[in-house]
Design goal:
The chain has 179 residues and is α+β, with helices and mostly antiparallel strands. The chain is 52% helix and 17% strand.
Length: 179
């Protein structure tokens, strides 16, 4: 997993809580990398789970809620860091529909070794789509937060219904209906 996912998580924790908690997460969590992350480095994806589990333990916030909050936060950061990827997109639904054919293609150009989740997307109408998330990382709650962040960025509202398709969380369906 790319280091930006780790560095931005720690930035979010510092902004929403404080640096003391960031330090505590890094010292109290068993991390093979030692917790030294760079935005362009590549790290074992399991470390993000370890950090979020420890964050949950420290704050009392449930893990799924933390992953969703982080997805919303990271989408906002992506709009700043990767602005050229979305500056010509005018709606959340257009961006969501272009994840596989545009966004992930451009990310692979920037980070050829990146292992991205896969989305099967079916547009059922201008404000209705089904997105099936598939990833061995099992981060459906994080993907849910990214979708919420995307909608917020474009000032759109929608109902997102999440259905876990595989018991292990490796496949999750999101039905998104614009309100």
């Amino acid at each position: 997993m790319k280091g930006i996912v780790f560095t931005e998580l720690l930035e979010m924790v510092e902004q929403q809580f404080d640096y003391t908690l960031v330090d505590k997460l890094l010292t109290d969590s068993p991390l093979p990398s030692g917790g030294s992350y760079t935005a362009v480095g590549t790290y074992d994806h399991r470390e993000i789970n370890v950090l979020v589990e420890e964050l949950s333990r420290q704050t009392g916030v449930p893990i799924p809620d933390l992953f969703r909050a982080y997805g919303r936060y990271l989408f906002g950061r992506f709009t700043q860091v990767y602005k050229p990827l979305i500056e010509n997109v005018h709606s959340a639904f257009d961006l969501m529909a272009s994840v596989e054919q545009h966004i992930h293609v451009e990310v692979q150009k920037l980070y050829p070794e990146a292992e991205l989740p896969h989305f099967d997307i079916t547009r059922l109408g201008p404000g209705h789509m089904i997105m099936i998330y598939q990833s061995e990382r099992k981060m459906g709650d994080f993907a849910h937060g990214l979708l919420e962040g995307c909608l917020a960025h474009f000032g759109e509202t929608a109902t997102i219904t999440k259905t876990v398709l595989d018991a292990d969380g490796s496949s999750v369906q999101f039905e998104v209906i614009k309100q």
